[in-house]
């Protein structure tokens, strides 16, 4: 199950990287001044804004997944500590 989360995170990061590259190309086109038409500039700004919103949403999702994974690992750590304490207590009783 954890492997599926990792694979999903990897896929999401690849998508985000692709969207970021696309936004970089659009930004470079704007910098070079290939399009000074106000309508084209508005389109490019809208395109960049939509991509940034997707990137932010994806990053938020990834962060939530990482936090959830961390919380799960902390929970497992606490269980293992408790198990170790129980084992130690049982070993002392036998002595």
Helix and strand content put the structural class at: mainly alpha
- Poorly predicted tracts of residues: none
DSSP helix fraction: over 70%
Task: Kindly report the average pLDDT value.
Answer: 81
Tell me the domain tally. Answer: 1
How many helices does DSSP assign? 2
Shape, please? rod-shaped
Keywords: Coiled coil
GO cellular component, one term: early endosome
Organism: Phasianus colchicus (Common pheasant)
Protein name: Endosome-associated-trafficking regulator 1
For the structure shown, list the relevant keywords:
2 helices; rod-shaped; 95 residues; mainly alpha; 0% strand
Set out the fold topology.
Elements: H1 2-32, H2 38-94
Helix pairs in contact: 1-2
Please characterize this protein's 3D structure:
Belongs to the ENTR1 family. It comes from Phasianus colchicus. By secondary structure, the chain is mainly α. It has one domain (2-94). 93% of the residues lie in helices and 0% in strands. It contains 2 helices and no strands. Helix 1 packs antiparallel against helix 2 (38-94). The longest helix is centred in the C-terminal third of the chain and has 57 residues, at 38-94. The two termini are 41 Å apart.
Summarize the structure.
The protein is an all-alpha fold. The protein is 93% helix and 0% strand. One of its GO terms (cellular component) is early endosome.
């Amino acid at each position: 199950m954890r492997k599926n989360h990792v694979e999903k995170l990897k896929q999401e990061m690849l998508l985000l990287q692709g969207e970021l590259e696309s936004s970089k190309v659009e930004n470079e086109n704007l910098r070079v001044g290939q399009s000074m038409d106000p309508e084209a500039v508005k389109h490019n700004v809208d395109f960049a804004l939509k991509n940034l919103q997707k990137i932010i949403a994806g990053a938020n999702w990834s962060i939530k997944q990482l936090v959830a994974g961390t919380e799960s690992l902390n929970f497992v750590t606490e269980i293992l500590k408790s198990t170790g304490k129980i084992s130690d207590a049982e070993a002392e009783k036998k002595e």
